[in-house]
């Protein structure tokens, strides 16, 4: 039952990430989504995949997105 709840949270997190206007908020939400995916892998008894997902999906990818946003120029329309 908990697996289904986490899957719903992951899908909602991905949808919320896509709907964000601010790219830094999208990076944070994608990190939370990645952390939920890592937790799901841990529940499904794949600790090695969960550890890799936690490092890459919850830390490295959002950090790269935030770094790319900071390095580009923003224009407000």
Structure, described:
With 77 residues, the chain is mainly α. It has one domain (2-71). 83% of the residues lie in helices and 0% in strands. The protein contains three helices and no strands. It has helices spanning 2-19, 23-43, 47-71. The termini are far apart. The mean pLDDT is 92.
Anisotropy-based shape: flat
Number of domains: 1
End-to-end C-alpha gap: 45 Å
Radius of gyration (Å): 14 Å
Number of distinct helices? 3
Strand elements, count: 0
Strand/helix succession: HHH
Give the helix proportion (percent range).
Answer: over 70%
Mean pLDDT: 92
Main attributes of the structure:
single chain, 77 residues, mainly alpha, 83% helix
Summarize this, please?
This protein has helices spanning 2-19, 23-43, 47-71. It is mainly alpha-helical. It has one domain.
Chart the SSEs and their pairings.
Blueprint lengths: L1 H18 L3 H21 L3 H25 L6
Helix pairs in contact: 1-2, 2-3
